[in-house]
């Protein structure tokens, strides 16, 4: 698992599965454009929605939950896992919000 700076994260996330592991209310308050919401609390049940043959880019509000998510998937045999250093609160790129 790699912790990536925003610059490194930006360079690769469009070619990857971008997963927001925050809770749905946080996701609706604003998320990185193109992200899918699979909250950490549901990841154990929903990990099969994430493909093993493509890179996975995780983020949360800070870095704690995305790190846990990556560790959980690593134990399930996933590789090519990346987390956004500093999380969503440090993100300066495009954001989508529910109106």
TrEMBL record:
Membrane spanning residue stretches: none
InterPro entries: GlpE_sulfurtransferase, Rhodanese-like_dom, Rhodanese-like_dom_sf
Coiled-coil intervals, chain numbering: none
Location of the Rhodanese domain: 12-96
Source organism superkingdom: Bacteria
Pfam families in alphabetical order: Rhodanese
Name of this protein: Rhodanese-like domain-containing protein
């Amino acid at each position: 698992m790699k912790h990536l700076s925003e610059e490194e994260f930006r360079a690769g996330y469009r070619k990857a599965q971008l997963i927001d592991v925050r809770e749905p209310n946080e996701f609706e308050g604003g998320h990185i454009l193109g992200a899918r919401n699979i909250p950490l609390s549901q990841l154990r049940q929903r990990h099969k929605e994430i493909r093993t043959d493509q890179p996975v880019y995780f983020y949360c509000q800070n870095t704690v939950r995305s790190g846990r998510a990556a560790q959980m998937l690593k134990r399930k045999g996933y590789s090519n896992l990346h987390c956004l250093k500093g999380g969503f609160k440090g993100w300066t790129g495009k954001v989508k919000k529910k109106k």
